[in-house]
Design brief:
single chain, disordered N terminus, acyl-CoA oxidase activity
Amino acid sequence: MQANDFSTLPEVHACAAGLKSITTSATADAIEECRKLCGGHGYLSCSGLPELFAVYIPNCTYEGDNIVMLLQVARFLMKTISRLVSGKMPVGTAAYLGRVEHLMQCHCEVQRAEDWLKHSIILEAFEARSARMSVACAESLSRFSTPEEGFGEISADLVEAAVAHCQLIIVSKFIEKLQQDIPGKGVKTQLENLCNVYALSLLHKHLGDFVSTGCITPKQGALANEQLRSLYSQVRPNAIALVDAFNHTDHYLGSVLGCYDGNVYQKLYEEAWKSPLNDTVVPDGYDEYIRPLLKQHFRTARL
């Protein structure tokens, strides 16, 4: 490592800490969302989801609590912005802050829903959102007597600014990868659809940030939602194939709901017979406890 490479170490640390935080949180949320979408079956141990959630959720605190790590990212962003005054240009994933003056003034050019398919427009919207939220936090910190006091008071805003920065990293790297040649017939098209779905779903989820910072107008936000629904229709026919592309075997998944042949109810029926309660036709305790209750005469309530 060269001596001048040490100037990039804070950026590398902030990138690693931030991506660890938002990816583990997003994965934990996705597992829980899958469980809810499976209805009551999602609670079954044979669905694999309860165990998957229990095993994965500690990742949100491994190597550091996610909120603490996002605050480290925020601290890096505040230092980066403070150094802009002295002419020190940021590098790596924070390089966009070197164009902070433009990003504070730019306006989204979307006029139709299809305009949201332009990667340049998506990227500028995410850059402007992140830059404006970071600058707003920096301005708020300047009003406190000490930085530590400010960090304690506006920590919630700092976390949101860090999340915006980290989401920009993922979106920008996804778009950057799509500029390269990708082998396979139709693969690049599907990846472009997934990239747009990911970016616009984040925009939909954090629409308040984009609108409140002036990155987009409410009408442009509505057009983004319209385009997102259209993208869902394009991705839906290939959803199963896209999931199968990960090549996770039934043994690896360990889930009757995620079996390759899709024969869910037959698998559920077979799994039910493995329960100890079904070892006999009449479960133990039936004659002693349950049958007497069924023979009782209950009074009908007057209410």
